[in-house]
């Protein structure tokens, strides 16, 4: 019994020692973690302060801003849009903020900004490319291949682009995507017609898109009804016989290419003037 009692006392004392050691280990671990966290916080605060200081000191001024890709937007306007000027601390320039500001212009689709220390900024601009003039009751609007309105225009001929007519809808603001069901097909036809030199000058081409299922192209005194899609095949059919048709039917007004393998023609008298 005495031996058992002694063993129990030894076990209890040993357990107490282990608990104390564990407690000391826990406190030491917590203290080390607190010290590491404190040092990390100090370094982070120091880095933040240094960064703020570097962006405010008059060192590293922007000496050159090179902008590439501008066609319709002037350099001064682009700099104002992006909020950048020569002499500003280059480290204070935020490329993300420049992008957000620049795309407010209906002409600018996107930009990329590269800083070249110590004093140069290089900006690559992607402008929207107009592919047609969307005719409206009061003037027209340049639109790009995505159907996004760019800027209003008074004289479409100055832009030497096909005109898309027959589409109605709400008022358009620069930079907005035009909500018109037939516009995408009309723009596809406009791009095809502008690339195909046999239609004459681009500004003399009009795409009528008033019918949701049909498109017509007006050029060189003709109305060519093409429906939608397969433009290369349809116009290839027409080009094979175009010269012959002109010779045989000088009063030709309408050419219908909507039916597979056929070129149907009508004179001005048969078409009642040849224009919808």
Would you write up a description of this structure?
The chain has 276 residues and is α/β, with parallel strands linked by helices. The protein folds into 3 domains: 1-56; 64-127, membrane protein fhac (Ubiquitin-like (UB roll), Roll), CATH 3.10.20; 130-271, Cell division protein FtsQ/DivIB (Rossmann fold, 3-Layer(aba) Sandwich), CATH 3.40.50.11690. It is built from 6 helices and 12 strands. The chain has a 9-stranded mixed beta sheet. It is elongated and about 100 Å long.
Mean pLDDT over all positions: 81
Q: What is the CA-atom radius of gyration, in angstroms? A: 36 Å
Total beta strands:
12
Biggest beta sheet attributes: 9 strands, mixed
Structural class assignment: alpha/beta
Sequence of secondary-structure elements: HEHHEEEEEEHEEEHEEH
What is the share of helical residues? 25-40%
**Fraction in beta strands:** 15-25%
Number of helices: 6
CATH architecture of the largest domain: 3-Layer(aba) Sandwich
CATH level-3 fold name of the largest domain: Rossmann fold
Instruction: Assign the CATH superfamily of the largest domain.
Output: Cell division protein FtsQ/DivIB
Low-confidence stretches: 42-55
CATH classification class of the largest domain: Alpha Beta
Distance between the termini: 120 Å
Task: Record the strand order, biggest sheet.
Answer: 6-5-4-7-8-9-10-11-12
When the domains are counted, the total is: 3
Shape type: elongated
